[in-house]
Design goal:
about 40% helix, two-stranded antiparallel sheet, alpha+beta, five-stranded mixed beta sheet, single chain, 7 helices, binds zinc ion, 2 domains, 60s Ribosomal Protein L30, Chain: A, about 200 residues
Length: about 200
């Protein structure tokens, strides 16, 4: 990964577009780095627990280096814009909660109105650009306090990603990690095959 890119550039490149959700993730990542004294090259020692799977999480992956593949991104499907970031080196953790008022201003509302429509006329497209620009300025420059509430928390660290052996599903014959395989009377099954059998 190119270390010379700014956090914002990294996030945009990874996510593929600029949107308010991504920008909130950029700010949350920067807040976490500042609060926990994280360095960019420390990424193996950073763990993020995210309670949503929307745009902002891509910023955390790109900036903090917390990714599914490395096992230091933990997804809880709660539908909440909440990010807990942990520094493994000293065990400190911060839970960052996006304020509901953060994007509820006039500009944010207009963005959502326009975003929800497929049939924008040229004037509205131009307005959309304008609105996005305003949101960009607003979200990237306002104090963290306007966007988030945060506090230090105690988090029991998940074990570092380990290697498990692979078993063979007796139905589909595909490999399945032992911790996800289901033992049945008819042999080992992967979860989808197990679910099929129960129907
Ligand atoms: Zn997005
Ligand atoms: Zn199977």
């Amino acid at each position: 990964m190119c270390k010379d890119m700014t956090p914002l550039e990294l996030a945009i490149q990874f996510h593929g577009h600029i949107c308010p959700g991504l920008l909130m993730g950029v700010r949350a990542s920067q807040l976490a780095m500042q609060h926990l004294d994280l360095k960019r090259d420390q990424d193996e020692d950073v763990v993020a627990i995210v309670e949503t799977d929307s745009c902002g999480v891509d910023a955390l992956q790109a900036i903090l280096g917390c990714t599914f593949g490395k096992g230091n991104l933990i997804f809880k499907d709660y539908g909440k814009a909440v990010y807990t970031v942990i520094n493994r080196q000293d065990g400190r953790a911060v839970r960052i909660v996006q304020r509901r008022s953060a994007s509820s201003g006039k500009t944010g509302q207009r963005y959502r109105e326009l975003k929800g429509r497929e049939d924008l006329n040229p004037a509205e497209k131009e307005e959309m650009e304008q609105v996005l620009q305003e949101l960009f300025e607003q979200l990237m420059t306002c104090p963290y306090e306007e966007l988030f509430d945060w506090q230090d928390v105690d988090v029991k660290l998940p074990p570092k990603a380990s290697l498990y052996s692979t078993l063979t599903c007796s139905n589909c014959q595909e490999g399945v990690m032992e911790t996800r395989a289901v033992e049945t009377a008819d042999g080992v099954l992967c979860i989808p095959c197990f679910d099929l059998q129960r129907r």
